[in-house]
């Protein structure tokens, strides 16, 4: 029986990204491409020290330099609020986190390299940089702590001496007494301690910002790459500038990557607005890669120990986790939420009846940490998947059987985990079996022997992951049919490379019977789009597309009602196709352009949809990674990589595969290449691409990707979300493969990321 061809548009259609022609021909329009007439240019003078008291000298001389228009220090903006932390959650003792101040410009003390000290505006960026270099900063050095594990030592230097400790917060989850009871009766306890190293997101487009002020309306306009202009407007206007949000417009043009890091407000955003108002002209700041390394929020940086209580059959009875997470020098916008929320996923896909976690956030003299693609869930998946592999080795069950014995059984679905997560759907043994089949797991032993004959160490690793995303909430979608018969969607999510215009457009095009080119998506302008939750946590398609679907259905009904009068036909006899509303089975039709331009009832040309999702969704799947290590050089090559994911419903298979490939590439980067290093004085040693290794094309394999979808019952369309899943499943699969190779020849059963050639070479030779 022949399968039906894929649809041209609509859910499931493999539509090519309509955004790409502009990007690949260099006609994309990013913030730095925008050049307002008469704009001045700004640079930020940043701290050269990680912890110091300071005074500023030479300001008058710097202000007198040619082209200099304005220099702002903390004294000039003391009326502003600081950069906010919206994650002042309750701690284990019932109190809320006490958030220390995070000034827009440092007030007499700097707490990490890159802390902003002054904002310099001039005719050109070069003139501004010359003036910044002319400012003399007199530092009085203070003691520094940069190591996450050492931050709570009794003799550790204090980032905030008035607090008397580097402990930023402590959170407990689960039932400690019950976990202790189970551990006391266990046949075996297996433990693991791992480091989830600090990462820099390194999106392609460094941040940039343009500030403008209109004295007649007293309104500001901020143009910058964000992951959601409405949240940015709230933070800049309400939290920092203390003005009515209606006085601030946030415009987001094309965005070259976000990964969570562009969700947040940074000092430059209010500063360009204040400077524009003072100077009566636009002010533009464009960050360099160095700025990104030292000031944009970093990711990960956890030191974690986990223990599993095991019975005689290899079944996990209880799990204990002790996690120390570096917050950096300040509590960033959502920073404390990341380890606290992520660790609640630490039980993974396993039926674990007892659970206790302790999460401690610590201050260090480093750049603040916050959400980075996956935001706590990759760390949780890495922990449980490394631990489950170790259990398989110590019990002799192996990496497949230990997972099967501990999976949540199908008869228990839907399932509420001991940490309170509601897994509404999934068939976990199903995607594991499919991944093992497609990766030829059974044939690995022969491939290992073949590699051994060539002097190479071969390993294979699994990861059966689950993540939480598309959190409860909504995203309003508004669609308008224009006089020319085209349609425009207004929605408050924000594409930073995902292909929203394609995904949303293909659904609207299907309902309205239009070509995709006739559907425009408007995002990134708080004056044009009424509300918006932005993009993060894989929410845009599960929530946004559901609202688009609702609005499209309403609009179809209204258009048929308009056309019914013109065509003298019953509504139920009409269909929308090829830009027309027509009577089914006849040539009687009216075009959408005629309908739109000819009606006085313009409200019928507009429709709104707002899907409210009450729970989260839980994508899950299996990754199988096969690697070869050259023991003479330590170089690791990924020779096979298989992914079988459950995303509920596939909206566009091409977009989906691209998202998964990108996430896996970032995880391979973490596993094998990337790492952020500070020296003892707090200097960032990996502050450029000369020292921070990014994955390149030749570091990555060809991926074998498939889906085995079980629709979500939480989401209206059955979608589970896919934007972060690649980063969650991949890192443990790669590192489990590395450990498998090392254990087979040297008995090395533990290795921390990154598994760089030098570190592997040393480990093999020492063993």
Summarize the structure.
The protein is 28% helix and 24% strand.
Structure notes:
There is one protein chain. By secondary structure, this protein is α+β, with helices and mostly antiparallel strands. The strands form eight sheets. It has a seven-stranded mixed β-sheet with strand order 3-5-1-12-9-10-11, sandwiched between helices. It has a five-stranded mixed β-sheet with strand order 7-15-14-13-8, sandwiched between helices. A four-stranded mixed β-sheet has the order 18-28-29-30, with helices on both faces. α9 (377-395) runs parallel beside α17, α13 (500-512) runs parallel beside α14 and α16 (653-672) crosses α17 (725-746). The longest helix has 28 residues, at 540-567. 53% of the residues are buried. The mean pLDDT is 97.
User: What's the total number of strands?
Assistant: 30
* Average pLDDT level: 97
Poorly predicted tracts of residues = none
Oligomer: single chain
Biggest β-sheet, characterized?
7 strands, mixed
Bulk shape = globular
Our measurement of the CA-to-CA distance between the termini, rounded to an integer number of angstroms, reads 57 Å
**Within the largest sheet, what's the order of strands?**
3-5-1-12-9-10-11
What's the alpha carbon Rg, rounded to whole Å?
Answer: 28 Å
How does the helix and strand content classify structurally?
alpha+beta
Number of helices: 18
């Amino acid at each position: 029986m022949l399968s039906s061809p894929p649809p041209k548009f609509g859910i499931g259609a493999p539509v090519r990204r309509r955004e790409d022609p502009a990007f690949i021909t260099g006609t994309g329009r990013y913030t730095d491409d925008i050049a307002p007439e008469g704009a001045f240019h700004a640079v930020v003078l940043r701290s050269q020290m990680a912890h110091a008291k300071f005074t500023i000298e030479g300001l008058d001389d710097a202000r007198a330099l040619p082209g200099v228009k304005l220099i702002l220090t903390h004294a000039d903006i003391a009326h502003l609020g600081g950069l906010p932390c919206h994650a002042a959650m309750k701690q284990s003792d019932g109190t809320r986190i006490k958030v220390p101040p995070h000034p827009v410009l440092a007030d007499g003390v700097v707490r990490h390299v890159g802390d902003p000290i002054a904002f310099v505006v001039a005719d050109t960026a070069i003139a501004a940089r010359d003036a910044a270099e002319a400012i003399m900063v007199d530092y009085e050095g203070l003691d520094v702590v940069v190591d996450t594990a050492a931050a709570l030592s009794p003799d550790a230097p204090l980032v905030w001496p008035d607090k008397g400790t580097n402990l930023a917060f402590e959170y407990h989850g689960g039932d400690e007494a019950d976990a202790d009871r189970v551990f006391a009766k266990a046949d075996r306890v297996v433990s693991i301690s791992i480091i989830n190293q600090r990462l820099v997101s390194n999106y392609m487009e460094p941040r940039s910002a343009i500030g403008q002020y209109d004295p007649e309306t007293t309104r500001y306009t901020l143009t910058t790459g964000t992951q959601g202009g409405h949240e940015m407007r709230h933070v800049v206007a309400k939290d920092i500038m203390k003005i009515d949000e209606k006085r601030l417009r946030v415009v987001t043009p094309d965005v070259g990557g976000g990964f969570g890091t562009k969700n947040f407000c940074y000092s430059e955003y209010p500063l360009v607005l204040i400077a524009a108002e003072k100077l009566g002209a636009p002010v533009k700041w464009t960050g360099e890669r160095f700025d990104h390394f030292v000031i944009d929020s970093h990711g990960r940086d956890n030191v974690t120990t986990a223990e599993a209580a095991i019975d005689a059959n290899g079944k996990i009875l209880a799990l204990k986790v002790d996690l120390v997470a570096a917050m950096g020098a300040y509590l960033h916008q959502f920073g404390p939420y990341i380890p606290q929320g992520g660790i609640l996923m630490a039980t993974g896909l396993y039926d674990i009846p007892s659970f206790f976690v302790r999460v401690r956030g610590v201050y260090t003299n480093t750049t603040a940490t916050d959400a980075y693609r996956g935001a706590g869930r990759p760390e949780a998946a890495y922990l449980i998947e490394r631990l489950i592999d170790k259990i398989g080795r110590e019990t002799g069950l192996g990496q497949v059987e230990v997972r099967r014995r501990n999976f949540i059984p199908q008869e228990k679905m839907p399932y509420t985990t001991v940490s309170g997560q509601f897994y509404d759907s999934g068939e976990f043994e199903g995607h594991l079996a499919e991944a093992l089949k497609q990766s030829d797991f059974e044939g690995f032993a022969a491939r290992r022997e073949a590699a051994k004959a060539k002097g190479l160490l071969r390993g294979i690793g699994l990861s059966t992951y689950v993540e939480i995303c598309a959190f409860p909430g909504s995203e309003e979608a508004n669609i308008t049919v224009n006089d020319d018969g085209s349609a425009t969607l207004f929605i408050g999510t924000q594409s930073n490379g995902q292909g929203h215009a394609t995904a949303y457009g293909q659904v609207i095009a299907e309902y309205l019977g239009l070509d995709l080119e006739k559907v425009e998506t408007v995002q990134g302008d708080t004056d044009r789009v009424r509300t918006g939750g932005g993009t993060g946590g894989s929410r845009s398609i599960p929530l946004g597309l559901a609202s688009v679907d609702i609005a499209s259905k309403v609009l179809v009904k209204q258009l048929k009602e308009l056309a019914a009068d013109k065509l003298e036909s019953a509504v139920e006899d009409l269909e929308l196709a090829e830009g027309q509303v027509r009577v089914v089975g006849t040539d009687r039709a009216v075009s959408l352009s005629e309908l739109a331009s000819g009606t006085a009832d313009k409200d019928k040309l507009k429709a709104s949809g707002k899907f409210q999702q009450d729970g989260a969704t839980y994508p899950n799947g299996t990754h199988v990674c096969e690697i070869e290590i050259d023991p003479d050089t330590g170089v690791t090559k990924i020779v096979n990589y298989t992914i079988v994911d459950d995303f509920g419903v596939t909206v566009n298979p091409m977009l989906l595969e691209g998202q998964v490939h990108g996430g896996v590439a970032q995880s391979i980067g973490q596993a094998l290449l990337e790492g952020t290093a500070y020296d003892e004085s707090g200097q960032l040693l990996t502050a450029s691409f000369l020292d921070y290794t990014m994955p390149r094309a030749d570091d990555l394999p060809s991926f074998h990707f498939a889906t085995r979808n079980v629709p979500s019952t939480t989401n209206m369309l059955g979608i589970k979300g896919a934007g972060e899943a690649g980063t969650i499943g991949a890192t443990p699969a790669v590192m489990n493969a590395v450990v498998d190779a090392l254990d087979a020849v040297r008995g090395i059963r533990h290795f921390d990321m990154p598994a760089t050639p030098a570190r592997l070479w040393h480990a093999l030779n020492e063993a």
